[in-house]
Amino acid sequence: MILVDKDIKSLGDKLIIEGYDEDCVGAVSYDVKADIFFKSSETDSYDRYVLKPNEYIIVKTKERIHVLDNLLGIIGEKNSLIRLGLLVSGPRYQPGHKTYIYLRVLNVSSNSITLNSGLEIAQIFFEKLTSIPDNCYDKIECSSFNDETTYIGFGKYDSCYNDMLK
After folding, report:
1. For the chain, how many structural domains are there in total?
2. CATH of the domain at 92
C-alpha cells in the first residue's frame, strides 16, 4: 500500500528529517530537490552543473530521509524531466535507512541541460510493508550507506568496484 498525501503530511518531519516542505507533497509522493552535484569519479561538488549529452552525474538532495521500520522508500522520475531527456535513478531505501538521497541523473537528449540546486529532481514514494522486518537497515552492522551525510562514492565497496573499472 502506497502512502497518500495526508499520510505523508501526518508523518512529515518523521520521514523527511531535514528539508521537509509541505508544498512538495503530491497525491502519492514527495518531490525531492537537488542540492549538490558530484561527478562520479570526483569528490568535488557543484551547486550548478551543465550536463552534456550521454553524461551522468550524482545528485545529493536537500532532503534527509528516515524510512520508518514499516516502510520502503522508492525513487521515481518526474514526467517533465523525462520529457526533457533526463533519466533519474536511485535505490530502494530500506526500512530503517537514514540518509540524504543520492541519485544518478543521465542526460539521454542531444542537448546540454543546466541543472541548478533547488530543482525538483525526483520523487519518493513510501510503501507500507506487511510487517516490520527482523533486520532493518539501521540495525545491520555492515550497512555501508546509512547516515551518509557527505558523498562517499562506493563506500566500503570501494576496493571491489574500483577493480571492475577499466
Report:
1. 1
2. 2.70.40.10
pTM for the whole structure: 0.86
- Find the mean pLDDT for residues 116-145: 83
* Contact residues for 79 (Cβ-Cβ < 8 A; gap 6+): none
The secondary element (H helix, E strand) that includes residue 130 is: none
Residue given cell 527482523 in the structure block = 134
Q: How far apart are CA 157 and CA 142, in angstroms?
A: 11
Cα 133 to Cα 11, 18, 93, 140: the distances in Å are 20, 25, 13, 12
CA atoms lying within 13 Å on the CB side of residue 110:
0
Copy the grid coordinates of residue 108: 539521454
Q: Which long-range contacts (CB under 8 A, 24 or more apart) does 156-165 make?
A: none
> What range does the domain containing 133 cover?
5-162
